[in-house]
Here is the input.
Amino acid sequence: MNKKTLVVVALLVVLSIALAYIIRKEGYFSAIHDIAVVSVMPSGTEVYVGDVINITVIVKNKGTQNETFNVTSFYDATVLETQTVTDLPAGTQTSLTFNWNTTDVTPANYWVKAEASVVPDETDTLDNTCLDGIIRVRAQQTEPATLQVDPRLIKVKAGRNFTISVSISDVADLYRWEFKLRWNPTFLDCVDVDEGAFLNQGGNTFFRTLTINNTEGYALVNCTLKGDISGVSGDGTLAVIEFHVKDTGKCILGLCDTKLVSSFKQPIIHTVKDGNFNAVP
Ligand SMILES: [Ca+2]
Here is the structure.
């Protein structure tokens, strides 16, 4: 071996040692540990309390080693369930199904998400969580609600003013309402219509008295919640209406063209009860 060859071999040896040192120091070709939640897919986004939602979660092993890890599903901050994925091969993905029974859930909008636990030596942890869109859980109307004039029987002296309420009972998820109230204009004048306290328990409302017609004897009123929120359930007052008694006589305070609408934009079944007015001398 001549001198030139010796120098080349020595150089190659030094280069090999340097390369091995760099590979070792920088971690090239070492194992990569990285898992990710790829998607979160609920079976429905608008459900009634009591429905079961299936949430399909896809997780992927983006690393170079088999991985075992936990996947936890949530609605808002509440843990739904944790499942374990065992020995997921490198480069592959798998699907998990979580069942969310909404029986005891308060009607509202909820975020659904899934979170994979961080495996040892995993550095990219941002992709271990995946948030899906909003799921709307609502109360469901099972029996008809009742829309009525309250009190049902009114006795007032001529010349006086009085107020009645239009009230709702046993309603679920009321988001918007509308009614027309009729009376005999010979005996009564409508003085004022105000919003009742029921609907704005659920949020900001837009209340409108569309018409007060004292010639024909009717008022048309409606009110709606605003924004993507639940409706209101239970009993309460929708509107308060003030009348002036012009003359003695009797008439019906009759509700017609009534509309009750849920936050899913569905009509709410209901019965209507009119009021009876009697002006006494
Ligand atoms: Ca990750």
Q: What stands out?
A: The two ends are 135 Å apart (CA to CA). Residues 3-26 form the longest helix (24 residues).
